[in-house]
């Protein structure tokens, strides 16, 4: 099957934006105008990756999906978490701040699903959980639409009751929602012109009445939780069509998209050294 280069280009944009946000966080530039503007335009960047995973998801035996997911997700999670942790320990040792408890980052792993030396890798662990659970549920002949409804309901409930730790309980639920929605829409060929127009209109509205949820912690930063869900779906569909069309021949974004996993796994380590 020919590689979808428009999706590669969008992945490139999303990864570049993610690196940009992490640079801003490292240098405390979160309140700059460009950061706020970009956040209002690409607030759905994290849900997009789960939606994309659903678009290309193929069911299989439990063992097959487990083996594939382990190879694609758990192996880089373990490897780059270890590298990031060792680099982090080295840096705080050089600063004279290293204590014995820092050597075994069990608390960070248990509560947030990642280590301080490579915090963004929570996504790999969460996507692994989503893929394995989604495949298992579908093989039990549960419709994907039911998965979407139940996972969204649980995510909303966790938000309402103020559930915090561990992060991955809530973000697996939101991940399952966006993943199942990508799975449903891709297979039903639901990307019709009326749906696209509606999504564009709602996405434009989101720029004037924004809502944003930090998907890692399921924390609402501003706006309304369900509006963020709705806006994210419409933003993803809008980006996949308009952005995919405009960027499909852009060699730079395609290349970044093809190497998005490597950039994703390494960029935080580079940032903590800088």
Description:
- This protein is mostly helical and 274 residues long.
- The protein is 73% helix and 3% strand.
- The protein has 12 helices and 2 strands; from the N terminus they run αααααααααββααα.
- Strands 1-2 form a two-stranded antiparallel sheet.
- α1 crosses α11 and α3 (45-55) packs across α8.
- The model has no long low-confidence stretch (mean pLDDT 88).
Main attributes of the structure:
mainly alpha; globular; single chain; two-stranded antiparallel sheet; 2 strands; 274 residues
Helix content: over 70%
How many strand elements? 2
In whole angstroms, how far apart are the ends? Answer: 40 Å
List the helices and strands in order.
Answer: HHHHHHHHHEEHHH
Main beta sheet: strand number and arrangement?
Answer: 2 strands, antiparallel
Query: Structural class from helices and strands?
Result: mainly alpha
Number of helices: 12
